[in-house]
Amino acid sequence: MSVSLPRKELFDLPEGVIYLDGNSLGVLPKGAAARAQEVIVDEWGGQLIKAWNTAGWMDLPRKVGNRIAHLIGAPEGSVATGDTLSIKVYQALAAALRMRPDRKVVLSDNGNFPSDLYMAQGLMDTIGKGYALRTPAPVDVMEAITEDVAVVMLTQVDYRTGRMHDMQAITARAHAVGAVMIWDLAHSAGAVPVDISGCGAEFAVGCSYKYLNGGPGAPAFIYVRPDLVSDIQPALAGWLGHDAPFAMELAYRPAMSTERMRVGTPSILQLAVLDHALKVWEGVTLDEVRAASIELSDLFIAEVEARCPSLVLASPRDPNVRGSQVSFSFDHGYPAMQALIDRGVIGDFRAPDIMRFGFTPLYIDKQDVLNAARIVEEVILGEIWREAKYQTVSRVT
Amino acid sequence: MSVSLPRKELFDLPEGVIYLDGNSLGVLPKGAAARAQEVIVDEWGGQLIKAWNTAGWMDLPRKVGNRIAHLIGAPEGSVATGDTLSIKVYQALAAALRMRPDRKVVLSDNGNFPSDLYMAQGLMDTIGKGYALRTPAPVDVMEAITEDVAVVMLTQVDYRTGRMHDMQAITARAHAVGAVMIWDLAHSAGAVPVDISGCGAEFAVGCSYKYLNGGPGAPAFIYVRPDLVSDIQPALAGWLGHDAPFAMELAYRPAMSTERMRVGTPSILQLAVLDHALKVWEGVTLDEVRAASIELSDLFIAEVEARCPSLVLASPRDPNVRGSQVSFSFDHGYPAMQALIDRGVIGDFRAPDIMRFGFTPLYIDKQDVLNAARIVEEVILGEIWREAKYQTVSRVT
C-alpha cells in the first residue's frame, strides 16, 4: 500500500462511523463548506450577475471537466460537465445512434444501472423506429456484440456486484463489428485506473458524487473522443452548447469542442464544491488508490468469510475483475444493513438481497476494515437483524 | 403600492448597487448561506448517505415544486423540479408531440429565448420525421396558430423586450385548433400573476434563478396538467421518475404523478438554497408584486424618456402587455451598459442593441428607480460610454 494513503486529514469524517458507502455518496472534503460560503456570499451575493465573469463561473464547467479528464485518462478539453448522469447517458446514446443510422440494436447488460436502461428506452421510444435494447447477463456481453449492434453501452463496474468489464477488450470487439462504444464510469472514476483514450471508446459518462466526493447531486460528466467532436449532433441542443451562446441566434450551431455537450445554465454552487473536492486528487495516482483498494477489499472478504459463513460473496473473488466494492448476498440483507448502520458501519442495500460495501482508500484504512468485519460478525452471528425495529424500517433507499 | 413591499430586509444587497438584473440572476436571500452550510456540514458531512432520508433530501424536489406551484396558480403535486430549463423544455415538447402524432409543426416565435428553439430543433432532428419549427414575430403568433400545428410553445414574457403574450387567449386559440400548449414561465414566475390552471395549458416550464432568487444554476421546474399526467410518455425516462426507483427494475415504469418528469439525482445543495429562497414569498401575493412592478417600471420609463431622448423604448408602453422589465434600444447599448454597471446600476445587454432593466419589487423601490434614472442620464447624456475602457470590454454576457 502506498505510504501516502489514506488521506483522512483531507476529509471531515463523522466520529464513530466506518463509512463504506463512498460508492454511493462520497464524504465531505474539508474546505468544501467554506468554498460554498464564498460562492454564495462573496460571488453571488456580492458580485451578482457580474460573477459569471468576475468569479469565473463561465469557465467553471470546463475547469472541472479538465480535472475529471485527468482522472480518466482523457485529454484536456475532452470532458464536459453538467446535468445528471442520466442526461449524459441520453446525450451519448442519441449521438451514437446517429453515427450508425442503419443499425437498430443497443446492447447493454442486465447488470447495468437501471437508469441507463430507462434512458435508452425513453430515447428509443422517442425516435420510434424499431430500435431494440438487448440486455444479456454481464458475462454474456462479449459474445452478444454482433454485427447488427449499433451501440454497446455498458457500465464498467456493476453497481450491485462490483464485477468489472474489460474496457479494452469490449471496446475492441465493439469496434471490430462496427459498433459505437459508450462507457458509464459511475463506479470507475476515482475508483480504478481508467484509460479512456487508450481504449478508444467514442463516449464515456459518469457522475461525481461517488468516488469523486462532489456532494449530493453533484454534476455529471461526458467525454467525447476528440476526433469525433465536430461531427457529433447533440440531441439536447442547449444554448450553452452553442458556438456563440450570447449571440442569441435563432438557429442552433454547436460549439466546435466537447462543450457542445453542455445544455443549460450550470449549477454553479454544486460545480464549485465539486471543483474544490477534486483537489484532493492532486498528487494521488489511481494506481496507488487501486492497489490500496484491492488490499482493503481482499482483507474485508477474508475477514467476513471467516466470520460469517451465511454471507455469500456476490462480487468476483479475483480482484482484477472487481471494482472498488464488495457485495454479499444475504436473504436478510435489508434488516442486516440497517443494524450495521445503527452500529456505525455504513454500507447500503440493493435489491433483491445485496449488502454493498464500498472501499475508498482516500479515507478508509485497514483498521477500519477490521473493525467493520468485527461488527458485521456481531450483527450476523448475533442475528441482531431479527430485532423488530430492523424488520420494520421503511425502505426508501 | 402595497405597504408590505419592498422587503429589502430579507435580502443581502451589496452596498452602492441598484440591482436591475433580477430578471437574469436574482439576489441573495438572507439565510441562504447558513442553509447551505447546514446542508453541507450537518447533512452531507454528518449524516452522509442517510441524509437522503434523515435530512429530507428525497422529499426536497417535491417540496420545492409545491412552493413554486403556489406562485404559478398550480395545484399541489403538479410541479416537478430539477435539471435545467432547457431540459424541461425538451421534456415538455417531446411529451406534447407524442400527444399529436399526426401533426408535424411546432409553433413558437422569434422572440423566444434561443435555447427553447435550439432544444426544439435538437428534439425534431432526433425524432427525424419531417417536423418543422415556425417562428413568426411575437405579434403574429395568434394568427399563425392553424390546424396543422401540433404544439404551441412560447415564453410568456419576451426576454429582450418584456412584451407579454396573453396566456389565456393564446391557450384558448391553441386548443381551438387542437394543438397542445407549452408555456415557458422563465420571466413570469415570481414576476407576474400566473394562473396556469385557469388557462388550461398542458405544460409549463420555468427557471428559478431569476425572480425566484434560487442562485446561479438553481433547478428548473415543469408543470403538467394533472388530468394528463398518467398518459404522458417521458422522453427522458430517468430512474427518479420511475414509479419505484429503488426496486431497480430493468424496465421503465413511470411514476403515477408529475414526478415522472424527474430524471436523475437531484442537486440537493441548489435545491436546499432554492427552498430557502422561496420562503420570502410567504405572505406576499403576486398581485401586490405586479402592482408595484408596474409602478416602478412606469416611473423608470417616464424618467428615462424625459432625460435621454436617444434611448428608444423597446418594451410595450402599455403595462398590461409588459412583464417586469423595461428595455431600451440604443446603438451603443453594450458600452453604455458597462458604464452603468461601473456606476452601480446593474442591468444587462442583449444583442443586438437592447439595454435591459428588470424590476423586482421585493428589493427595489421608487428611490432606487429615481437614482437609476439619474445615473442613466449621466452616462447617456455625458456620453460616458464613449470612454475607451467601455469600448474594449470583452463581451461574454
Automatic annotation (TrEMBL), chains A, B:
EC number: 3.7.1.3
PTM annotation (N6-(pyridoxal phosphate)lysine): residues: 210
HAMAP family recorded: Kynureninase
EC class of the enzyme, as a word: hydrolase
Gene3D superfamilies assigned to the protein according to its UniProt record, in alphabetical order: Aspartate Aminotransferase, domain 1, Type I PLP-dependent aspartate aminotransferase-like (Major domain)
Described purpose of this protein according to its UniProt entry: Catalyzes the cleavage of L-kynurenine (L-Kyn) and L-3-hydroxykynurenine (L-3OHKyn) into anthranilic acid (AA) and 3-hydroxyanthranilic acid (3-OHAA), respectively.
Originating species: Shimia thalassica
Protein name (Swiss-Prot/TrEMBL): Kynureninase
